[in-house]
Structure formats: C-alpha cells, structure tokens
Design brief:
By secondary structure, the chain is of the alpha/beta class. About 45% of the residues lie in helices and about 15% in strands. The protein has four domains: about 20-120, Immunoglobulin-like, CATH 2.60.40; about 130-225, no CATH class; about 230-320; about 330-460, Glutaredoxin (3-Layer(aba) Sandwich). The strands form five sheets. It has a four-stranded mixed sheet, with no helix packed on it. It has a four-stranded mixed sheet with strand order 14-13-12-15, with no helix packed on it. A three-stranded mixed sheet has the order 5-6-8. Strand 12, helix 13 (about 365-375) and strand 13 form a beta-alpha-beta unit. Helix 3 (about 155-170) runs antiparallel to helix 4 (about 175-190), helix 10 packs parallel to helix 12 and helix 11 packs antiparallel against helix 12 (about 305-320). The radius of gyration is 26 Å and the shape is globular.
C-alpha cells in the first residue's frame, strides 16, 4: 500500500508543477537584471506579497513559476517602471519589456512610470486585451467630457459616457473584466458626485461583495472610505460622539452608528473601520488604547475570516512601536562601513530620525538637534537613518560645526523602514536605555522634544 501511495504521488508531482502560472521574459538588454513579481491580495492592509523572482540570464531569458489561486493583478518594479498585468491560474505570460531605462533619480518623490505589460501571443479574448481596449476607449471618452463631468459636476454627462461604453463593451462571462468595468463606471460617476458621494457608496459598495484584490474597487474604496472615520469626527452633529467612541474603543457603538444610523451593511462597516484605523493612529489625535481595543474586537467578533486576519495584522503592525515594546531590530551600516545595532548605544536613550538630506522639513532641525545632544550628551545619543542613494556625498549636508552625527545607511536594509512603520519623513522615535520604545513616535525637535525628554529623564532618575 505504501508503495502504491508513493507511486501515485510521483505521478502527481509533474501535474502540480504544470498547474503553476509561468511568467517569461526574453529581452537581451535586460541580461543580469533581477525581477520580482508580487500581488496585493488584500487592499485593507495593502501589503505586497511576492509570488516569484528571478534573474535574467546572459541570453536575456527568464522563466518564473508562480502560484496564484484566482485571477489577479501581478506587479513588478524595475528601472524607472512599475509594470502590471492580469494573470489567471495555470496560464503562460510572455512579457514584452520597454527599452531599458535605469532609475538614476535621487529625488525622494520619484514615482515610477506605470505601464501595462504588453504580452506576446495572446488572444483577443485574453483579459489583458479586453482591459487594454476598454481603457483606451474610456480614456478617450473621459478626455472629451472631463470638463463637464469633473468641473461641471454633470452626472447626466457621466451617465451618457457610461451608456456609450456599455454599448461598445457588452456584458461578457469574464467576472474579472465585468468588475473592472463596473468600478471604472463608478469612478466616472464619482467625479460628478464628489461633493456628495453617498449614492456611489450605496450603489457600488453597500450590500455588495468586497473585492479585496481588485485594484479598481480598492482605488475607489480608498477615495471614499480611507478617511471616512476621520472626517466623521469633524462633523458638527455627530463629530463629538464619534470622537468619544474611537478614543474609548467603544466598538459596539461604532458598529451601531455605521450599520443603523448610516445604514451600511456589517461587512462594509468593518472594512471602513479597518481601512480607517491607520490614518487615525498616525494623526496622533486619538487614544491608541481605544484604537487597539477596536481592532481586538474585530478579531474576536467578526464573522468574516479575512477581517479577523486583517485586524490582527494591523494590530501587530501598529503595536511594534508602542510604548514599552522592544524596539525593532536596527543593524544598519554607518558611513564608515561599520554595522551598528542597539548594543552600540546601550545605557543611553536614542533619538532616532528617519530622513533624507534634501528633506525641507528636516533642514531646520539640525541646529536644534545639535543643541539637544550637547545639553544631554551623557544620557542621549542621536542616530540619523538616511534614505539617500549616495550617502557619502550627501552626508556633508548634515554637518553642523562642532557636532558629529551617527549616520546610518537606510538603503542597506529597506525592511527597517517597514518595521518602524515609517510613513513620512522626517519621522522620529525615542528608544530607552533598555532598548524599549519610549513612545509610538517622538516629537520633532521643534515640537518641544527637549522639554518632554527632560521630564522623562527626571522621572526615570527619580
């Protein structure tokens, strides 16, 4: 019996390999270049998930097998480009790459050029061809009518364009394409109703399936709901009530408000909360204990498994830099080539800053940091993590007379930014002498950091 099972498994192995989706490249000028391919399976966390990688060989060829279990958008970033295409399970895609163009920009606001990968040997009914043809017509119609729709807020014009597109692209049996079209139509109508988008929320989101991996769905969801809770706290009628709910972690009351008062279904209400927690957290205007309680309640009570998982992931992500937690690993190379970690600063507080030398908001901080460091040299070290591509050249821009910085190369380990939840620059943290976080984020030097640090030091010594 064991031999029969083993023999059966051997026959199964090649079948399982054949089920993998294959991505191929044939581009001699890209020889030696590495590619990774990723998906975003859940827009509520917006975390990329790498599904395959490889390096183009000397002949310009690359073949990568990836495992996907649904029709989904696959991305890859290379040179100055960010490319995408839609892949289905058990298929083969041969990408046509644009001319090689290296990214030589040191601009912190650089954004890659978006391209929809051209594909070799695809049928007209391939999802990528359907999307390409639709997008071309959509862009042309929008260009001709944008002033009326967006500036004139003409819903009638938007619906006329929508009807024209529907006549050119009738309903198909391709579910992905139908969802793609549906939320492109929704975005069209949203342009006209941007000042009062409730009809869009009701027609396209409320009591509708949540499309966690559909980019057009998630893009419009973000526009409508990413800061829905934050804006709600500013309302004249309910703002104070919602503020109290969020700060006290009153999850049941928050859900009742969204489902009974606003009349969203339970699923979309939870999604609104999950998408809105991070903006609330990073605004520094809300009690983090209350926000964490809300996430814990979703983990414990939601009947939607992906929401339970999402709440847990967001909780863990935000909790990494909370007061009293062990600081995330550092281990970065300094400008002299030495690897530094928390052991090098043991016994002192560390004022940790993530920035770039050309960051305009950081420039006024330099002299203030020098003064703080000078006043508290026995108890405080300052570390600057630079994102710059050419640290040696740019480190001189940090110079302050009579003051030497500890400068670490941020680009040597990009995961450090993720572990500290760095979302903007500059971002500051304070780490205590035991290597624990002394707060989720520290004030900037011009936000009374010195006064707050003096109080922390006094309380600690007492």
């Amino acid at each position: 019996m064991i031999k029969k099972i083993a023999t059966s498994l051997l026959f199964l192995i090649p079948v399982l390999n054949a089920l993998a989706t294959e991505i191929k490249i044939s581009a001699p000028e890209y020889a030696g270049k590495s590619f990774n391919f990723y998906i975003i399976p859940n827009f509520l966390t917006d975390k990329p998930e790498v599904i395959g990688d490889g390096t183009v060989d000397a002949s310009g060829n690359l073949s990568v097998n990836v495992e996907i279990n649904e029709t989904i958008t696959v991305y890859s970033e290379f040179g100055v480009y960010k490319g995408w295409f839609v892949a289905t399970p058990n298929d083969v895609y041969e990408l046509i790459l644009p001319p090689l163009e290296e990214n030589k920009s040191s601009n912190p606001y650089f954004r890659p050029k978006w391209i929809h990968f051209a594909l070799k040997n695809v049928a007209p009914t391939n999802i990528n061809m359907l999307i390409e043809n639709f997008s071309r017509q959509y862009s042309m119609q929008l260009s001709l009518n944008q002033n009326k729709i967006f500036l004139g807020r003409s819903l009638e014009t938007a619906e006329t364009v929508l009807a024209n597109l529907q006549s050119k692209f009738p309903v198909t049996d391709n579910a992905y394409f139908e969802n793609f079209k549906n939320y492109k139509y929704a975005s069209l109508k949203y342009m006209a109703l941007i000042q009062d988008p409730k009809p869009i929320m009701d027609e396209y989101f409320n009591n509708k399936p949540i499309l966690y991996s559909q980019p057009e769905y998630s893009e419009l969801f973000d526009k409508l709901f990413a800061k829905y809770l934050q804006y709600a706290t500013q309302e004249v009628t309910n703002g104070q009530k919602i503020n109290i709910m969020l700060n006290t972690g009153a999850f049941d009351q928050l859900i009742d408000w969204l489902t009974i008062d606003v009349q969203f279904d339970r699923g979309i209400a939870e999604a609104i909360i999950l998408k809105g927690v991070k903006p609330l957290f990073y605004s520094k205007r809300f009690n983090t204990v209350g926000l964490f309680n809300i996430l814990q309640e979703i983990t414990a009570t939601s009947t939607i498994e992906i929401h339970k998982e999402t709440a847990s992931k967001i909780f863990n992500e935000l909790a990494r830099t909370q007061y009293g937690t062990i600081a995330p690993e550092l281990n970065l190379v300094d400008v002299k080539g030495n690897i530094l970690n928390w052991e090098n600063f043991k016994g002192k507080y560390v004022y940790l800053c993530f920035t770039r030398t050309d960051n305009e908001k950081f420039a006024p901080h330099k002299e203030l940091i020098k003064e703080i460091q000078t006043n508290y040299a026995k108890d405080l070290s300052v570390i600057i993590v630079l994102e710059d591509d050419e640290v040696e050249k740019n480190v001189e821009a940090l110079s302050c007379e009579g003051f030497e910085w500890t400068v670490l190369r941020g680009n040597t380990r990009r995961e450090v930014y993720e572990s500290f939840n760095v979302r903007m620059m500059p971002t500051y943290f304070l780490v205590d002498p035991q290597g624990r976080m002394a707060g989720s984020q520290a004030p900037w030097p011009d936000e009374n950091f010195e006064l707050q640090f003096a109080n922390i030091l006094k309380a600690t010594k007492n």
